[in-house]
Amino acid sequence: MISKNLAIQVLNAGLATGADFVEIYLEENPVLVIQVENGHVKEIDSSLGYGAGIRLLKDLQSVYGSTSDVSRKGLLKLASQLAASFNGTPIKKVEKISKKRSHNYYPEEKPLTDIPNQDKIKLMKECSNLMSEYDPSIKISRVFFSESSQKVVIFNSDGYLFEDYRPRLRMFFAPIAVGPNGMETSGEGPGATGGWEFFTDIHDAKNTALKAAEQAVRTLNAKECPSGKMPVVIGNGFGGVIFHEACGHSLEATSVAKGLSVFSKKKGQQIASSLVTAIDDGTIDKAWGSINIDDEGHPSQKNVLIKNGILNSYMVDRLNGRRMGEPSTGSGRRQDYSFEPTSRMTNTYIDNGKSTPEEIISSVKLGLYAKSLGGGSVNPATGEFNFACSEAYIIRDGKVAEPVKGATLIGSGEDILKNIVMVGNDLKRAQGMCGSLSGSIPVDVGQPTILVSEITVGGRGGQLQ
Amino acid sequence: MNKKYLPFFEQAKKLGITASELNFQKSRTTSIDIFHGQVAAFSISDNQDLVARGVLNNHFGAAHTEKIDKANIINLADQIAVNAVLNENDDPAIIFKGSKKYRKKNVFNPEIDQITVDDKIKLLLDIEKRLKVADKQISEVSTVSYEETYTESALMNSYGLDLSNKSNYFYIYASVVAKNGNDVKTGYKIFLNNSFKDFNIEQFVVDVVQDATQKLGGKPIPTGKYKTVINPKVTASLLGFYMKSAVAENVQKHTSLFEGKLGQQIASSKVTINEEPLKNNIFYNYFDAEGVATSNKSFIEKGVLKTYAYNLSTAAKDNVETTGNAGGGGSKIGTTYTNLGLKPGRLSEQDLFKKMQNGFYLTEVQGLHSGLNPTSGNFSLQASGFVVRDGVLAEPVSLITVAGNLLDVFKDVVAVGNNLELQTSSTSAPSIFIKKLAIAG
What we know:
The structure holds 2 protein chains of 2 kinds.
Chain A: H1 4-15, E1 21-37, E2 40-58, E3 61-67, H2 72-83, E4 98-99, H3 117-134, E5 138-156, E6 160-179, E7 182-185, E8 191-193, H4 197-202, H5 205-220, E9 223-224, E10 228-234, H6 241-248, H7 253-256, E11 278-281, E12 302-307, E13 310-311, H8 318-324, E14 332-333, E15 342-343, E16 347-350, H9 357-362, E17 366-378, E18 384-396, E19 399-405, E20 408-412, H10 413-418, E21 420-423, E22 428-436, E23 439-447, E24 450-458
Parallel strand pairs in A: 4-6, 9-19, 10-17, 16-23
Antiparallel strand pairs in A: 1-2, 1-5, 2-3, 5-6, 6-7, 6-8, 10-24, 11-12, 11-16, 12-13, 14-15, 17-18, 18-19, 18-20, 20-24, 21-24, 22-23
Helix pairs in contact in A: 1-2, 3-5
Chain B: H1 6-14, E1 19-35, E2 38-56, E3 59-65, H2 70-86, H3 111-114, H4 117-134, E4 138-157, E5 162-180, E6 183-193, H5 201-213, E7 224-230, H6 232-242, H7 248-252, E8 273-275, E9 297-301, E10 304-305, H8 312-318, E11 326-327, E12 334-335, E13 340-342, H9 349-356, E14 359-366, H10 368-371, E15 378-389, E16 392-405, H11 406-411, E17 413-416, E18 421-422, E19 428-429, E20 432-440
Parallel strand pairs in B: 7-14
Antiparallel strand pairs in B: 1-2, 1-4, 2-3, 4-5, 5-6, 7-20, 8-9, 8-13, 9-10, 11-12, 14-15, 15-16, 16-20, 17-20, 18-19
């Protein structure tokens, strides 16, 4: 998007007052969003994100600026404004730039930009109609589609140029079911990095749409969830949001480096049940959270965070790596050029164990089966979390019994990791958007079915009997 | 109008687009973070976005770009045409010709730019230093930060409407960690304004520290129904979700709790909910996203629902005038509130405790985005707060859940406090005292 020659000038303008590292992040991101409701296109919007971010580091200090003016004048002005934050003399100079190549984990077989929008709309309408026809209580069947073709170019004062092209697509099914006692929603959002082949050859969108419809109708007829402390079986796939929220965020260098995380300075220590191995892997083929390079140019990698219960690695970006004296783990990410990168997750999951899901369910006499979870949040300093169940059942005498709604799981990440007593062999990943310091980014969460010996469950259905 | 936008309107006309509109947004932000006596992060941003809409064969087409050069300005019109053809939304597609009167005032405060970055840093360092020594239980000052934002917007259309506005504000945010043995709690405070005159550093430090230390030793309380006072922050969050039901679009789609309730008593007579976009310097807005003049008004007066919130399209469906609540942009304009607030009463928060005598004081809820269903109004949220005994605050409470329904919360209001607080969401509320809330410990 800019010449190597201009990049060298901008980098040197950034280095002029003693910064020890300068980075230019350039981005061009065409986005298409379509919404279909009850079989009709309700919204279609195209946009072009465009701009640059410049970062200067000096020891542990960082200054960051972004602009949508990517002209020579705009970039040089921004670099000088940022350099004015320091008052030293240059300690290095960039003479030449060489390109670093990276592996491509998401080649597009059917490039998104080659597929007519009519084809995308056709599939969306089929899914919308399937949901509407599933049950008369489904009054609104919404399908959202988004695709982006983000082109990223990074130059840094180590003299390197990095490039990544990230085609992404996702469909989100959001039916609303209405009954005599109110209404319920549900959501399923399959997505990938890659081309249109995801919805023609890899993922059965129609089947997922039907699952969302089933779920909304089931919740409509479910009783309120009882409250209290009980054993909880958490289902595979999006159930992994529990690890993402309650533990993943606390393993990001963003909170670890400042000593604000419950897991700070605990490397090598047992922080989880020995059944737990947890991984953050940005290199999974065509996964929604995968990246060829992170937003600092570092190649993405597979990081084993917890191995058999022992804390093995944090997720580290360049700046927090300096604070911690650790190398980057390829975890520096950002929503777009207007955000300074920081350590974030990619595809994060609890790895397979040995139990079958049936063995896990049958081991519980009276408890909750949280088959699927909604969103949640966590306070990284205390590790306290909460999240809502989007699909849940009571387990009675080792069997899945009646569905319940309105269940919330609350507790602390530290406790829950230690209380995992069974881990299944049915690992599955699911897609989500994760919001944090450096904006909203695509991530996968995942896990096999697990059993936690005790979690506080909130609900409006009285005592569990 | 800036001449560089003319090629857009020319191209739109050429393509048979019957009415078109451009909405230009520009923002400049400076933010500073302090950690351990040093500037840990300093950032500036200067971003712009040009949003275009147009009507072709009675359907909207929309597109936007951050790359604002001649080629992309013209391309916006092309994109509108391409998208409008695929759009099957039969809602009325209206570009607005203009209101009779606009109440524009200058709310831009030059003071924010006049204070140097160095002085702003000095202020943050001072706050950090004071927080460190304010209480023995403060183990870490996790964040002291400052952010200022300048925004500029302009709305131009093919009918000749040409509106513009510029405003600025800043906030100061601090958060701390308090420790007592193994018990760890966090606390924070945000000061949001567009003038430094109202900032009181002593009070700010006390509030941040108290927010954390008061929670130390928090334990669950027995499951049951409790009389409850809800603090301004939580009340404002609940109010935001409650008022989604007053959005006409939700009523028309049958996803509102207020459907068919116009003119009826839906809340306690103590509850009056106003929207005042013209009141303050911060969150001031004299035209909405469709160019309609905004006004101060009541949505709920003494518990009675007076009107729904409309934009041009939803108003046309109900055959009423728009209320000037259009928000968002692109092909689908939504509905939003600016400076929505629960009207304060006469009692102080302490008076509310006295009135309640024994019950619960709710100060924090988590997981609103997942634990509250705005269409059914049901919520089940992780929460913390304090026991109120004999009319005064007693021990802290944590790791509980509160559950209920939004309609019931506002029906159950016994009294409204006078301690109005403005939140960063632009919603303001005082504390409220409600008859009952289900708590699971």
